[in-house]
Specification:
It contains twelve helices and 24 strands. By secondary structure, the protein is of the alpha+beta class. The strands form five sheets. An eight-stranded antiparallel sheet has the order 12-11-18-15-14-8-21-22, with helices on one face. α3 links the parallel β3 and β4.
């Protein structure tokens, strides 16, 4: 069969999420495409990484030029495999992607179409919906078709920033990673590592909570250098003002901006994203990223927790620190389920019976430090000055869209946004 640029290529992961992707394609997507006389080709993945191999075949069939439209029936991991395979295309093709959320968490889809806001986009497509075959009219099914509706309505797709990570070693060897949802270390990466061991027994999102309990009382020793080439320099979110400004480390200087700052650990949480505000439909871990969804600004949004800044933990007795660190971690990160309210929490300035409670937009410094910049370097320090009573985690572990990698001993991870290439690369219908 001769494949043209007008063909919609559907990449289906049959085991993603609850394993219903193939059924969804045959019962919902194909009837819609046939009803609208849209040419399509279906590809089914057969092994891990196969989405990237399929993408390469599509690229060759499309003669390495022009616009190619692809539908991803799977989750963030399937899209990651596809994207990682296409990072070698060097911007020759403009990939326009339709998302069908059939993964476990569907972070990108949930960020582009927040569940609480779905009535509005559904209403805007009501005329189109009424023309479709009736099996696609359930509320759950309609929600999963919002990206397709945007494509059918000829809405311009939005640019999808890609994060490039280089893992380097003292010997000069490097490993290149691409990610489109999240790049993390510390607790988030540790949770992903342990959650994979629980996938068979706990296939749903509950496995992440179990893994969190196993890692919430660990410290991760590293330093990170944030960099920005903009005139504003590196910026930090100030919940007391509800605005971006100079990082707290330099606010008392006369410098109008700071293009490079170094933050010393230990850390309990470190996560960066440029595209999503949530990792699950209701887990809004990076709410400040939402302003970047439909207008490319070129920022990495970095969410950091350094627990020893909190006297509730640092001034606790050694035998109590592990329990207190875990308690605080769940208290703070749990606020991500309240529409990202964790970024509004501040450290109490009062020493009332040494309770060291948290405040909402109080006068103290933020509990969660949120920065935006355009690149950074994470350097594991393997600090031997451990904090008594607290375990240390693997600070060399890196998570890129759920795929785990390890920084070589003595090496680092350098992270930056890929340059936007004259309208080429990845775009998503949103």
């Amino acid at each position: 069969m001769s494949i043209t640029q007008e063909t919609l290529h559907l990449i289906v992961n049959p085991v993603s999420g609850h394993g219903k992707g193939v059924e969804f394609v045959s019962q919902t997507i194909v009837p819609i495409l046939e009803h609208l006389s849209i040419s399509h080709q279906i590809y089914t993945t057969t092994s891990p990484g196969d989405a990237g191999n399929i993408g390469k075949k599509i690229l060759l069939s499309s003669q390495n030029e022009g616009t190619v439209r692809v539908g991803i029936v799977g989750g963030d991991g399937t899209f990651h495999e596809f994207m990682e395979g296409e990072c070698v295309s060097d911007g020759q093709v403009r990939w326009e992607v339709i998302l069908f959320p059939h993964g476990t968490a569907n972070a990108l889809y949930s960020s582009l179409f927040p569940p609480a806001l779905t009535p509005s986009p559904l209403q805007s497509h009501q005329a189109l919906i009424e023309t479709l075959p009736s099996p696609s009219h359930s509320e759950e099914t309609l929600y999963s078709l919002l990206s397709l509706f945007s494509y059918l309505a000829k809405t311009l797709p939005v640019y999808l920033p890609i994060t490039q990570t280089t893992l380097s070693s003292p010997t000069g060897a490097v490993e290149q990673l691409c990610s489109h949802v999240v790049l993390s270390t510390s607790l988030h990466a540790a949770i992903l590592e342990d959650s994979e061991k629980l996938r068979e027994s706990h296939p749903g999102t509950e496995r992440f909570k179990i893994a969190a309990q196993q890692n919430a009382s660990k410290l991760f020793y590293a330093s990170v250098t944030l960099q920005s080439q903009s005139n504003l320099g590196v910026e930090q979110w100030d919940p007391r003002k509800g605005d971006w400004g100079l990082p707290y480390t330099i606010k008392n200087t006369t410098q109008p901006s700071q293009r490079e700052i170094t933050i010393e650990g230990p850390f309990s949480y470190f996560l960066t994203t440029s595209t999503v505000d949530r990792l699950e439909p209701q887990f809004v871990i990076s709410p400040l990223t939402s302003s970047n969804q439909h207008e490319y600004q070129g920022y990495l949004y970095i969410t950091i927790i350094r627990p020893l800044r909190d006297r509730f933990i640092s001034q606790a007795q050694p035998e109590d620190r592990k329990d207190k660190l875990a308690k605080r971690a769940f208290e703070v990160v749990g606020q991500a389920y309240s529409n990202g309210n964790h970024v509004n929490l501040t450290l109490s300035e009062e020493d009332e019976l040494r309770s060291f409670g948290l405040e909402n937009k109080g006068k103290g410094e933020p509990v969660v430090e949120v920065f935006r910049c355009d690149s950074f370097e994470w350097i594991p320090t393997n600090d031997q000055r451990k904090v008594e009573g607290l375990d240390s985690g693997n600070e060399r572990l890196v998570c890129a869209d759920g795929a785990l990698h390890t920084i070589p001993q003595g090496g680092s991870a350098k992270v930056k946004l890929e340059d936007k290439k004259n309208g080429k690369n990845f775009y998503v219908f949103a």
